[in-house]
Amino acid sequence: MAFIESESELQSLEDNHLCADCNTNNPTHCDVEYGVLLCGQCGLAHKDMKGNINHEIKILEDDQLTQKDIRSVLDRGGNKQINDEFEKFLPSSYTKSLAQINMFIRRQYIKRKYASRGFAFEDYANTLNDSRRIGILSKRSEVSDNEWNLQYIVLDRDRQVIECLLKGGAFEPEEVIPLASAEVFIEKLEANEGAVEEHCIRISWEKEKYGKSLRGADSQKIISANLSSSTRWKERVIKHIFLTSGQEEEIFEWYCCILIAQGAIPRSKQRIHIPKPNQQKLTMSKSAPTIEIKLPSRINTEIISAAPIFFKTGRLWKSGPDKLNGWKERWFTLYDNHLVYSRSKLFPFASGEFHVGTSIDGYKVEKGHMKYTRSPPNDFTFTVTTPWRNYCLCAETAQERDEWVEQVNKMLHRNNSTMLLRSREFNVEKDNGSRKACCSNLINVFS
Length: 447
Fold this sequence. Notes:
Blueprint: H1 2-11, E1 29-31, E2 36-38, H2 40-48, E3 57-59, H3 67-76, H4 79-86, H5 103-115, H6 122-128, E4 132-140, E5 148-156, E6 161-166, E7 175-178, E8 183-189, E9 198-211, E10 221-225, E11 231-244, H7 248-263, H8 297-303, E12 312-319, E13 327-335, E14 338-342, E15 350-355, E16 364-367, E17 381-385, E18 390-394, H9 398-431, H10 442-446
Antiparallel strand pairs: 1-2, 1-3, 4-5, 4-11, 5-6, 6-7, 8-9, 9-11, 10-11, 12-13, 12-18, 13-14, 14-15, 16-17, 17-18
Helix pairs in contact: 1-3, 2-5
């Protein structure tokens, strides 16, 4: 009984209902040395932290805390007081929930926070906030799967771009990536058995591509004429570049610098299809029609961030739209309101993408596949339904399928909530005389 009372006393400290490192609810572990309560994943990261610090991680539910441990944690003041010390100069645009996306980010953040106390001093924070950062990283070749070339990478916050220059004094950049529309991820590189895990930074963005051969079945294609009057296609494609370094700390620093630079840019890039009350049914199209909207200011800070929301990657099989099409293996990435797929994990161009909207528009996800498709590789299938096409997908395991279905459902729920907030705001502005009536019938749908 004494332990239960002491545990409740620990939970009563400020911010002790959240994990000190990733803000997950209901922490289950305790780092006695630092006096913080953690979730299970952050507890593992604390155990793996290298250095001369001997971490003692204990589980709350297993009654592993002694009275001495409890008193030591209480004396430290709780998660809020510890974070005020160790995160004093943590950049405001860095989101702690990023640790929930990737174990690599979680471990590097915890190592930087505790072992080197990087966020406790102003010097390191100033380094992350530099207006210009230049370094040499290895960039994957677009021709060979196993070829990585050294390039100068320039992050320019004033011009809001990332430039890739060939090593050796090139004046013109090979790639110019706009920060405002780029998505940044951490990918795990496939390694041989027994080899050390390696990671890379993946940067994805939309760019215009000219050529007679088209990439991406879902791209928007426009015919244009060049100087020689021959007809060529212009399309918007999603391109990926992959950057890595021999030091994991450098990869994490570049990742943080890019996200912090993006956080300083006003971004309203959520693409959500909002039907009007008298809107007619749209015709079949290869790409889902979307409109650029600016979300209400009260929810911008909650769901618009430099980091992707509901991030998940993995290998899935995908069936074609025709019943004669077979199943092809693709690498999928789920972020914000999009599912993007490529031929392989490190392929430079996306093969296609589709938008995930709201339930009122007919978007849904469910287990199983359509009857007209060919026999899948296994029984772990699920279908993402859109107003224009049913995407039949197949995972390697039942657990992997359930995780994909859960993440897509979270995205749908988030979009439904956003639609409800927008419809209410429209009605308020209509009552105030600043906006015409629209979306007023959506309140009844979600209530």
